[in-house]
Amino acid sequence: MIKILLTRSAENNLEMAAALKKYGYECFLCPMLHIEPLAINFDSYDHFRDVIITSNVAAKILVANINYAINVWVVGKKAADVLAENKNIKIIFKNINH
For 44-95, how does the pLDDT look when each residue is reduced to its tens digit (9 = 90+)? Predict the structure, then answer.
């Protein structure tokens, strides 16, 4: 059995471990990150119409805070699915091959 050390945030480690366990991997959790959103005034950035994101966390933050039309270039199906919850967000690209 292959043993894997997962080093993402505690929440992300649990999700990844569950996915890998299905394939017979033994996972050990060693979170090296703590993800905490920063206080951002999104109105200060409303002149930007395009943004690139690479994480589900960023997708959740955008969904909760964007109230104007914006194009999002996103990596990952899960993040794209989260973004689809906000009618102001237009998903331009999503890489779902992984």
Answer: 888 899 999 988 889 999 999 998 999 999 988 889 999 999 999 999 876 6
Q: How many CB atoms lie within 10 A of CB 3?
A: 8
Neighbours of 73 (CB within 10 A): 14
Where on the phi/psi map is residue 24: left (φ > 0), alpha (ψ -120 to 50), or beta? left
| 86 in Cβ contact with 65 (< 8 Å) | no
Query: What pTM did the predictor assign?
Result: 0.71
Give the span between the Cα atoms of 5 and 2, in whole angstroms: 10
Instruction: State both tokens at 80.
Output: 């794209």
* Beta-carbon contacts of residue 78 (< 8 Å; ≥ 6 apart): 56, 59
State phi, psi for 82 to the nearest 5 degrees: -65, -45
Reduced to 3 states (helix: H, G, I; strand: E, B; else coil), residue 94 is strand
The residues, any chain, with a CB within 8 Å of residue 75's CB and separated by 6 or more, are: 53, 54, 94, 95
